[in-house]
Amino acid sequence: MKFGDLARMRHIITFSLSPFEQKIFPNFFSEILPNTWRRFRGSFFRIAPPTALGYMVYSWGTNNHKESKRKKPEDYANDE
Amino acid sequence: MTSIRKSHLTLKALNESMIDLPAPKNISAWWNFGSLLSLCLALQILTGLFLAMHYTSDISTAFSSVVHICRDVNYGWLIRSIHANGASFFFICIYLHIGRGLYYGSYLNKEAWSAGVILLLLVMMTAFVGYVLPWGQMSFWGATVITNLLSAIPYVGENIVQWLWGGFSVDSATLTRFFAFHFLFPFGIIAMTLVHLLFLHEKGSSNPVGINSNADKIYFHPYFIYKDLIGFAWFALFLITLVLFIPNLLGDPENFTPANPLVTPPHIKPEWYFLFAYAILRSIPNKLGGVFALLASILILLIVPILHTSKWQNFAFRPLAQIFMGLLVVDVAILTWIGGMPVEPPFIIIGQIASFLYFFLFLVFFPLSGWLENKMLES
Fold it and tell me: B204–A1: do the CB atoms touch at under 8 Å?
C-alpha cells in the first residue's frame, strides 16, 4: 500500500465556499435539530434497551440475593 | 534525490508504517486504541523494569520488597501504582480495541485479527503471572485456583500442574519462575505486535463507513500522529487521576495481607479484567467443562471471521447486529459483575444464562442477523 499506487481517480471536481460567505449554523431549527434527532434515534434505541435490561437483571439479582440473606419473619411468627 | 527516510533500510520501515503510511481520512476515535495499546506496553515495560530493580522473587522477601519499593525507593510508590493501574488500563484499551474490531468488521483482515487474539492471550498470561508477584493473599490463592484448573486435563493433568508449580503447591519455585515469565512474555508481546502491524499494513486500516477508502487516503503524519497524541493525553489524564487519587479502586484489599497457605480468603476472585471469564468458568458444574468454557470464551474470537455472513463489513448499516452488539457488551458487563459475586443464588442462574448468551451471540445471533439483513436488502 503506497501513495501513487492506491486507486484510479478520474474527473475529481471539488467546490467550496469561503467561510466569510456562509452562516455558521445555517437552518438550525429546520435542518440541524431534526438531523440531531435522526442521529439520536439511530443509535439510542439500539443501545438503551439492552442496557436497561442489563440494569434490571443487576438490580433484581442484587435485591434477591440480599433478601435471601435476611431472616424470614414468617418463620418466627409463632415465637413466644 | 530520495530523502534518507525513504531509502535507508531501517528508516524506510519506520517511514512506511508511521509517516508516509496511507490512512483513511475518516477513522474515528475508535482507531486510537491501537496506538494506546503500544503506549500501555511501553509504559508497563518501563515501570516494570524499574520495579524489577528492587523486587525480589523469593517468598520470604517478595511482599516486603514491594513494601520497600512503596516506602523507601524514590518515587517507588508512583512507579508501583502506575504499573498496577497501567495493567487495568491495558485491559480497558484492549477490550475497546476488540469491540471496535467486532463492530467495524476489522476481523475480515483474518491474519491481523488472529495475531491480535494471540496478543490478547499473551497479555492475559503476563497479567496473570504478574499479579502473583506481590505475594499477597489474593496473589497466592488466585494462582492456586487457576493453576489447579490444569489438573482437569485427563491422565497428565496432575503432572502438568506439579511441573508448572515446581513442587506440590504454589510456593517459592512457582514465584521465581512466574517472575521470569512476567519479564519474558512482554518481549513476545513486542514481537507479536510487529507481526500484527505487518499484517495490518498489508491491506491498510478499515474505516467507520466500511467502504474501500483507497480513493481518499491521507498521510499518517502529521494527522494521525497528532490525533494519537491527543489520545495519549486523554489516557494520561485518566491514568494519573486513578494513580494519584484512587490508586486502590480496582485492587483487592485481601492483597494487603501477606500470602498464607493456611488461611483461605472467603472470596477468591481475580482482577476485574478476568471476571467475565471467571464467571464463564464457574457457570459449568464440571471442572474440565469449565476449563473448556474458559478457553472457548477467548478462542471463540478466532472463528468470528468464519461466522461473518453479512454483505456489509461493519455494523453501521445493520440495525439487528447493532442491537446484538449492545446485548454482547451488556452481557460481558453482567458476567464481570457475576464473576465478582459469591457462587450463591440467584448469581448462579444469572451467570449460567449470561454465559450461554455469550456463546449464543457469537455462534447464532450474529451470523443470523447477517443472513436476515441480507434478506431485507434483497426485498
Answer: yes
- The nearest CA of chain A is from the CA of B377 a distance in Å of 18
Q: What pTM did the predictor assign?
A: 0.93
Domain(s) labelled CATH 1.10.287 in chain B stretch across 269-378
The answer to whether the Cβ–Cβ distance between A65 and B341 falls below 8 Å is yes
Out of B203, B322, B344, the one facing A65 most closely (by C-beta) is: B344
Give the pLDDT of residue A8.
Answer: 81
Q: Return the CATH class of domain B269-378.
A: mainly alpha
Q: Which of B14, B78, B18, B73 is nearest to B46 (CA)?
A: B78
Q: What is the ipTM for the molecules in this complex?
A: 0.89
Residue carrying C-alpha cell 491491506:
B203
Which CATH superfamily, name and number, covers B19-263?
Answer: Cytochrome Bc1 Complex; Chain C (1.20.810.10)
Average pLDDT over residues B298-327: 95
**pLDDT digit string (tens) for B256-275?**
999 999 999 999 999 999 99
Q: Are B308 and B107 in contact (CB under 8 A)?
A: yes
Query: What is the C-alpha separation between B329 and B327, in angstroms, rounded?
Result: 6
Q: Is the pLDDT of residue A9 over 90?
A: no
